[in-house]
Input
Amino acid sequence: MKSLPLSLLVGSGLTLIFIIMAGLSFVWTPYDVTALNIDQKFLDPSLLHLLGTDHFGRDVLSMIMVGTRNAIAVSIIAVGIGMIIGVPLGLWVAGSRMNGGSFFDEILMRGNDLIFAFPSLLMAIMITAVFGPGVINAIIAIGIFNIPVFARMTRGAAMGLWSREYIMAARVCGKGMWRISYEHILPNILNLLIVQATIQFSIAIIAEASLSYVGLGTQPPMPSLGRMLNEAQTMIFFAPWLAYFPGGAIVTMVLGLNLMGDGIRDVLDPKLRQRKGQDVVA
Amino acid sequence: MKCLLQIMMIWLSGICASFGQNTINLGLQLEPPNLDPTSGAAAAIDEVVYGNIFEGLVRINQKGEVVPGLALFWELSTDGRSYVFHLADGVKFHDGELFDAEDVRYSFNRARAAGSTNAKKYIFEPIVNIDVFDPLTVMITLNHARTDFLFNLGLGDAVIVNESSAANNAFNPIGTGPFKFDKWVRGNSINIVRNDNYWGGAPSLVSATFKIITDPLSAYTAMMAGDIDAFPNYPAPENLFLFNNDANFEVVIGLTAGETILATNNKKAPFDDILVRKAMAHAINRTELINGAMFGNAVPIGTHFAPDHPDYVDMTELYPHNLSKAREYLKDAGYQDGFTVSLKLPPPIYARRTGELIAYQLEKIGIHVEIENMEWAQWIDQVLRNRNFDLTIVSHVEPMDINIYANANYYFGYDNQEFQKIIADIDESSDPRLTSELYKKAQIKIAEDAVNGYLFQLGKYGVWKNNVRGMWDNYPIRSNDLRNVYFEGGN
Output
């Protein structure tokens, strides 16, 4: 048994901490995050309030727990939207191109280029500004920009596989395009998808924080890491923990996810694994 | 870092002391859309030009009193309908043209003309006639006596402009004031310079620059770095104590004319029921709001009137914070299980913070509030124009604006004939004592009807270097009149 790469261990460790925190917040937080208590405002971190309290006397740790949960929920759904729509689209256009039709492929890929041409965060801000701020619209806005990422990646990887002999064999056997895509292509690109999903997940967390920072994401009273950062801005000179902790949470979570993505790729990607093996021999 | 800042401060103050400072940098949070107070409603216009570039016949000083302006003195006829203004002699506009009674006639006729874009045309509505007796005497006749006419003439909307330059005032304002417009760098700063020929004696400042700083954090760093000498209305009340603890700065907490209210859509169920509005009034905890949202720096109000006004009636104890009473009223109204409403919040930080607290307070009596944060454009469109809202929080910054409650089509939709009669009587009244009584009656009426939730009077948070003198402490009107500003120890 080969030892797991360090990045995977550290990354999944960090991610796990946040997942546990988020999961725990469903059943328990140290304090109620919707209860405001002005008498308790700006308390330094202490044993009573591990990460201090904010300007409304809310417990920062509890807010970070719930904020993390919201960020993770938004990201899971947004990345999910991207995968559920993007992957079949990619499979479809790759399959139809390899079966002689390039019309839809051209349309889809140029459409992809179009979406890629806009900075995704700016477009997400535009979408939420037009359709109103809120979690649902934030999810949709982030989700839309995940579609082309997955569509393009799936298409590229699938095209490479369609020329393989075993696909040829499957076609000779009379399997249809969708069946081949599902039974032979998808399992072979799954590792790529998982790695990409992890990376997209971390991007989605930043996107959610950014939208909330400008007031377009999660709405009060639901805590959100981005909004906590925004509110902490003018208080940073006398209550710096209000900025340090949510900021640190975002950084750590994104770092953890990226490390985990790298680690998964190292483990799953046979090409990489092989090359590494050769390196060792050489 | 702190040490470095301190060294810089000492170095800077050294420079100032040795040369005697006579230019000032002021912080301004909102950039004015233009610089013509007679065509725009934005308070930011007056914050730059009122009293500095433009002057009216009378002026409003920082105590909210009417003092002579371009009219040195005036006589009021016994029926209270005609004012004879005696104008200052030898006054010149900044472009060199002479000011006389014809300019008064032109300015007021322009403001009340059919196509005028003046934001407060009501000021000029009672005017029947403007007679020019001679270049320095003008008589204004009203359809009936109005006790608020002189005060209104002191507002930025009633300043005197010159016919030849009036059309360009939006971007090249030409007035008679102690300062001349110099330049405007969009998004950055507006510069005005001393009018050496000012008829009332030139001010001590040679020039003043209004620097536009929208971000509260930048406001703090700009003050600390010494880029700004004075922030007439500092945007983040939570930072005031930092300046208070710093001997280099002076903090003056004054009042504005801004009644901050929980505006309630009186035409929409369930708020058309006075019991519901009373329940909400009992659920509001003003102390918590002021401590939580304004960090203690605001004055509670119980009606729509400035608490520093002599006619103010303290109605804050009419519906004291009392949750059981609030629940009782809700029960009487048939809403014992509560209901869900939306609260649309405009961008200012006071509205956003107060909104979160209000939502929390109303939740306690079973009213579930969904907060919707929006930009000004959206807010004006949805709330102010189309009255598509349940609740909102906003500060009404106009002075003496209780008459908005007489307008049944105003956004909160208060349609009460008794109240409308009171305001009509105020308009008709020529007796100051009666007017004062009527204003009190009006305040009590809207407080009893719990038209809106009356929260607090917005403070004016003045922060300036400890050697700045002569800044306004209060904002009876939105003005940063710089004529008396100077630096202690300067020349």
